[in-house]
Structures are given as structure tokens and as C-alpha cells.
């Protein structure tokens, strides 16, 4: 015999009965009706029971069987009513047992204890009023009490099993939700990392394009060699920007972080970055005091490279023509320090559009690498970016 989930799992409207629920309820009704028919037959065969009393008993039994369809909605009420009804009506005994079982499934033990206690208290009086012709008085009491204990124990076992299943389902549901949230968070973090990479890479390339395009616009009478050099830088920067953008879009489509594409630059590639900036017309001085840049951990070296790249990009935007100094110092156990410094621009600087998020992104990069980054104007009107990164 099975029931719906315990009431503790209910919320809002009551669930509609399923086909299985209807089959269980109909089976309970047939069982109670069968027990009632056996009781009615025993009453008819007992000459000590008057016929009017037997008729009243059978009427109460029929009403009790009909009330059995309400056991899911009001389990405690039905069990409480069946205690006195079962005492005066022998044909209602099956309904009283089923109501007690339903109460044990649907309600906590304190409700079951009240209903079962009332029925147990009436058992001696019942057999004193209606002794069983086939069993002694004490044996009848013990047998009925054992039956009631078994019914209550079975109902509480079913309730515990249902609660365990609900708990396991909730755990599985929570685990699935947490796994989905972790996956979404990992995807969001990966996309943020890709966005930072896009800013760091494309800002450097596109700034070169903007500066040299602006130079060609404002100096159409420049020497042919200078125009050709600027056009070469524009072509090369556009090609590199397209290549980087193609790789980033490919990563987004693949749903991965950076498992494909060209190797990520490290500190060893800083010389190439400075040479590229010099070819673009910048005045850059590189003061690298790290004996073996290749020994720097890849994550630290990549962060240092991006900081230097963003510093050169900002200097090219806001201080064109000024000499930029890139200094890298440190060693194992000391940490790595990267400084990008430029003096005040020598002339008015045309406005170059930008997102204004580069330094914020660099600060976040440094913090993620367990380091720190400071930036701000210098006393001579220039600007300085200084980062300290761990090198354990």
C-alpha cells in the first residue's frame, strides 16, 4: 500500500491524483469494504447483537468506507473520527486501520501518537463490550494491539522512505543547479579573459593604425619614404589585428579559453614588442635587468608583457613623440617589477578614442597574479605605470 509524498513536501495547491493514486485509493476502498462485509456477516451470526444495532453498525461501516476517499485531504481528522466510530461499529474496523496507516504516512509522529493512543485506550473496552467468540479476552487485545503497532510502524517506514527520496531528489536538483552555475561562471570568466585579451591585443594594433593614419592625414606632403613606411606599418598592423581577431572569434565559437591559436607572449617577447613600437616611430628605451627572461614563470611573464604592451599603447595615444622608458627588474624570490614611464607630451595631442578600461584591466590582471599595480601622473607632467608581480 503506497501513498502520496508526505505533507511536508507539499506547497501551494494539492497535486492532482494520478492513475496510480486512484488505483491505490480504490484498492483501499475495496479492502475496507471487504473487512466491513466480514464484520457484517459476523454480526448476523451473533445472536446477542440486536438486529437494529446491526443495521446501525452496517450503516456506519458504509459511511466510513465512503469517508475513506477523504483520507488524503484530512488524514488526522479521519483517524480522529474513526477512533470512536470504530469503537461502536465493527464493520468500520478496516477503515480505522487504513486511516491510521494514512495518518502515519502523511503526518509527524505526534499526530500519530494521539490517534493511535486513543484507539489503544478503547481496545480493552471494545472487547469487553463485544467479546470475540473464538479468542480469549487477553489474546484479542494483544492481537489487535500488535496489528495497530505494525500498521503504525509500516506507515512511519513509508513516510521515512518518502522523505529520504525527496531529500535525495532535492540534493540531486541542487547539485545539478550548482554544476550549471559553476559552468556558467567558468564560461563567464573565460569570456572576460578573452575580452581582456582582445582589448590588450587589438588596442595595441589599432592604436598603431590610428596614429599612422592620422600622420598621413595631417602630413599629406611627407616624403615618399616616410609615407611608404607608415603605409607598411598600417598594413602590417591591420593584418596582425585581423589575425588576432580571427583567433579570438574562433575561441568564442569553440567555447574554449585559449587552447588554439598562436602561443601567448611572455617576458621573453618584450624585446620584439619594443622593436615593433620603434618601427612604428616611437622612442622607446628598454632597461631589462632580468638575466634570464625565459626563466620567469609563464603566467607572470605573460602578465608583465601585457602591462608593458598596454603602457606603450597608452603612451602612443596620449604622449606621441615622447620617449618611453620600459624597466624590468627582479629575480626569483624577489619578485618582478615592471615600470612604463613617459614624460609630458611635447605638443598638443589630438583626441584618440578609447574605452578607458585598459588600466582597470591591468590592475585586475596584476591582482589575479597575486601582485599589485599602481598608475598615475608624475611630478614632471608625465605618466607612470608600475607593477609588482610575485616570482617565487
UniProtKB/TrEMBL annotation:
The keyword Transmembrane applies. This is histidine kinase. SUPFAM superfamilies: ATPase domain of HSP90 chaperone/DNA topoisomerase II/histidine kinase. Its EC number is 2.7.13.3. One of its GO terms (molecular function) is protein dimerization activity. Residues 191-255 form the Signal transduction histidine kinase subgroup 3 dimerisation and phosphoacceptor domain. Gene3D superfamilies: 1.20.5.1930, Histidine kinase-like ATPase, C-terminal domain. Coiled coil: none annotated. Signal peptide: none annotated. It catalyses: ATP + protein L-histidine = ADP + protein N-phospho-L-histidine. It is an enzyme of class 2 (transferase). GO terms for cellular component: membrane. The chain crosses the membrane at residues 22-40, 78-104, 111-129, 135-157. Keywords: ATP-binding, Kinase, Membrane, Nucleotide-binding, Phosphoprotein, Transferase, Transmembrane, Transmembrane helix, Two-component regulatory system.
